[in-house]
Amino acid sequence: MTALLALATSLLWGLADFGGGLLTRRVPALTVVVVSQSIAVVVLGAIVIATSAWQEAGPQLWYAVGAGVVGPVAMLSFYKALALGPMGVVSPLGALGVAVPVGVGLLLGERPGLLQFAGIGVAVAGVVLAGGPELRGAPVQRQAILLTLVAAFGFGAVMALIAAASTTITGLFLALFVQRLTNVAVGGAALYASARRGGRVLPEEGGSRVILFSLPALAFVALADVAANGTYSIAAQNGPVAVAAVLANLYPVVTVLAALLLLGERLRAIQAAGAGLALAGTVLLATG
Description:
Blueprint: H1 2-23, H2 29-51, H3 61-84, H4 87-94, H5 99-107, H6 114-130, H7 142-164, H8 169-196, H9 208-213, H10 215-237, H11 241-248, H12 251-262, H13 269-287
């Protein structure tokens, strides 16, 4: 069950990243974050009311608040790094955030078996290679590397925090609602500050009409991301955190394959090899 839920997480995150990447070609990245998370707040708020999930409020929700603060910072750092450095360097490094939840699992006393340790190594190597790392070319700015590492740590911290924010399904709904509400507050404040400095809020062409027409895609990105957080949280609570974290972090492979199938992008040899290694690591983790 843990493996299946974690793989579902990677599928959902991969598709959400793919959709978000397409949207940021037309809409400012910060606007995409705020609007999509606002949609998630509305949907989750309705679920919380319908299930009376607010009754499970407790100190553990501070973990959800923490995830809500860290998430936008990580996302914006990642987008900024992509603007400064080659995607072939930034994207694979971003996947290294898996070290955070894996480390948490080890600190909690988890000791994966030999096959699972091998699977972790093979899967992480596969994810890095699937991103198509650029091994030659112009040097990468130090700022891009630092921003990528901040983003990676942030992504990993969100995984660890949201897994600790609830112990029941209804509690998970409440935790995700609080996380998204915090996302909107933090992202909205950043968007306001950016607008005050003259930054773009609406697309240069089409303005608010583009956002209106993009609402279905924004809703998909938001709900896929919410569902991924939910499936990961359940996976991490019902099995080894290290296994759940590594399998969930296969999402860059999904994004690469989505670009291959839907946009016709060509898969480089190193990316194909990485996808194969990720699949082999998945098998080892699931059977170890």
